[in-house]
Specification:
Elements: H1 2-22, H2 43-49, E1 53-57, H3 61-65, H4 86-95, E2 100-106, H5 135-145, E3 149-154, H6 167-184, E4 190-192, H7 208-218, E5 223-226, E6 232-234, E7 249-250, H8 262-267, E8 274-275, E9 278-283, H9 299-309, E10 315-319, H10 330-347, E11 356-359, E12 395-400, E13 406-408, E14 410-415, E15 423-430, E16 433-438, E17 445-448, E18 454-456, E19 458-466, E20 472-478, H11 485-488
Parallel strand pairs: 1-2, 1-10, 2-3, 3-4, 4-5, 5-6, 6-9, 9-10
Antiparallel strand pairs: 7-8, 11-12, 12-19, 13-18, 14-17, 14-20, 15-16, 15-19
Bound molecules: 2-acetamido-2-deoxy-beta-D-glucopyranose (4 copies).
GO molecular function, one term: alpha-L-fucosidase activity
Organism: Nicotiana tabacum
EC number: 3.2.1.51
Length: 490
């Protein structure tokens, strides 16, 4: 049996040798990507970062009492949305370009939007659907039908439950509710642990290690959000503004939930040993819950939030509260349409596409795969411009107009963060004159030019300081017709 096989291999080897003799110099040397610089995002964090805009829904007894923090003594009978339609919520999110929606399954008042078997302070005791309803289920169904991912918020602080303040009893109760939420409703992509707590609330030790381990056990691709991560960190304010310096890296050992330094959270740490990117949570209205007296923020406020969150290496978690009918109000739906349409108007055209591009150097030489043309493709992570390792400084990339001048007022720069966040300082020159500068870039940096519109033939981005050779994955030159620099410079 062995013989035919031997002749066959012999034939293959001979052919191979022959080919080598005919084409002796066909040796291909492909330059590999540079080594990553730690820490790196994990898979779930990288997916989360690319969402850019996600949506929060604060809904519960507070919607009906006109409060922001319930007392825990609300009568469940007040929870009676007459036209609740989670499909309308998720449609609103989809129209805004959102791929993840997060619901307050339980807020500080302790009222549960799902029929938890561990409490009767829930939809079970409400007149809505005669106590047979489950808002979490309807929310999950609506999201699933639209291909949108789900996140859940379960408030640690509970003003209703008598066990709150008794460490073992309350932690048992809390972990039981976590198990219900993370077992019953399919995939959950983000869990939100709010650090908020009243100043005279009972003392309470949360068993975070138990919570996090349980969450990871039940959901393999979830991101755990809290002031201190471990998956995503709070940005340190509720305005939707990240720091102008915004690192995805930080030292987790310096953070504690409900008690972290807001400035440190806001800017992160270039020496941070943990990848823990910031999320900017802000409400479209003044309050987190719906109030008759409040209206949605105007378009220019929403755009400012966008530039200072998504444009500063963050994901924007925008809260849109359903009203007492159980619907997103028309005014909010309309404002979100304007917001999405404005973002599309600004970013759908990239003037850099029509330019010729040069760079200070490129890894692997010409055709090495790391040329500056990579910043104009649609891959904003894994194709990038990289300079040569040998060039220690003076890294730059330049765009030149081919005929008429470039007219823009927004510049977008993105780093290949899959290999670590690197850039610490950069400057922008148009026709040789410096017009803007900044520190970090990260996944996305948007410069909305304070000087307003620029008319120029060349645009050069200079990297002046970096933790390792800079890797730039995308650049855009855009025109924002909504930006009137004179009125709005801060
Ligand atoms: C919580 O503990 C601190 C320090 O142990 C104490 O000063 C404070 O009075 C306690 N608060 C309550 C509400 O029990
Ligand atoms: C964070 O940790 C790194 C490594 O231990 C250290 O060099 C750096 O100083 C720390 N950052 C702060 C703000 O302490
Ligand atoms: C938008 O609202 C803010 C207050 O939040 C106000 O200062 C600003 O003038 C408004 N802008 C426009 C264009 O209406
Ligand atoms: C930007 O440039 C100005 C003037 O040269 C300088 O004072 C400032 O520190 C720079 N800012 C950053 C973030 O590099």
């Amino acid at each position: 049996m062995a013989k035919p096989y031997s002749s066959m291999s012999c034939l293959i080897i001979t052919t191979f040798t022959l080919l080598h003799l005919i084409f002796p110099s066909q040796e291909v040397k492909i330059t590999p990507p540079p080594l990553p610089i730690l820490p790196l995002p994990n898979y779930a964090q990288l997916k989360w970062q690319q969402r850019e805009l996600i949506m929060f829904f604060h809904f519960g007894v507070n919607t009906f009492t006109d409060r922001e923090w319930g007392t825990g003594h609300e009568n469940p009978a007040i929870f009676n949305p007459t036209r609740l339609d989670a499909n309308q919520w998720v449609d609103t999110a989809v129209q805004a370009g959102v791929s993840l929606v997060i619901l307050t399954a339980k807020h500080h008042d302790g009222f549960c939007l799902w029929p938890s078997k561990y409490t009767d302070h829930s939809v079970i005791r409400s007149p809505w659907k005669n106590g047979q309803g489950d808002v979490v289920q309807e929310f999950v169904n609506a999201a699933k039908a639209r291909g949108v991912d789900v996140g859940l918020y379960l408030s640690p602080w509970d003003r209703h439950d008598k066990r709150y303040g008794k460490n073992k009893e309350y932690n048992e109760h809390y972990v039981a509710q976590l198990q219900e939420l993370l077992n019953k409703y399919g995939d959950v992509k983000e869990i939100w642990f709010d650090g908020a707590k009243g100043s005279n609330a009972p003392n309470m030790t949360y068993y975070f290690d138990d919570w996090f381990a349980m969450v990871r056990e039940l959901q393999s691709t979830i991101n755990i959000f809290s002031d201190a991560g471990p998956g995503i960190r709070w940005v340190g304010n509720e305005d939707g503004f990240a720091g102008s310096t915004s690192w995805s890296t930080i030292n987790r050992t310096l953070l504690s939930i409900g008690n972290s330094n807001a400035d440190y959270l806001n800017s992160g740490d270039p020496k941070g040993t943990d990848w823990l990117p910031p999320e900017c949570d802000v409400s479209i209205r003044k309050g987190w819950f719906w109030h008759k007296s409040q209206a949605p923020k105007n378009l220019s406020d929403l755009l400012e939030i966008y530039y200072k969150s998504v444009g500063r290496n963050c994901v924007l978690l925008l809260n849109v509260p359903p009203n007492t009918q159980g619907l997103i109000s028309d005014s909010d739906v309309q404002r979100l349409k304007e917001f999405r349409s404005a973002i599309d108007t600004i970013f759908s055209t990239n003037l850099a596409n029509k330019c010729s591009i040069k760079a200070s150097s490129q890894r692997g030489g010409k055709n090495g795969g790391f040329g500056p043309e990579n910043v104009l493709d649609n891959d904003h992570l894994w194709t990038y411009w990289a300079p040569r390792d040998e060039d220690k400084d003076d890294h730059w990339i330049e765009f030149k107009a081919k005929d008429k001048p470039l007219r823009f007022n927004v510049l977008r720069i993105q780093e290949a963060i899959g290999l670590g966040q690197r850039i610490k300082g950069h400057e922008i020159y148009v026709d040789g004159i410096k017009i803007a500068n900044g520190t970090t870039i990260g996944y996305k940096k948007l410069h909305r030019l304070e000087k307003g519109m620029v008319n120029a033939y060349s645009v050069r981005i200079k990297i002046i300081e970096s933790r390792a050779i800079p890797l730039i994955s995308s650049v855009g030159l855009h025109f924002d017709p909504f930006w009137n620099s004179n009125g709005q410079v801060k």
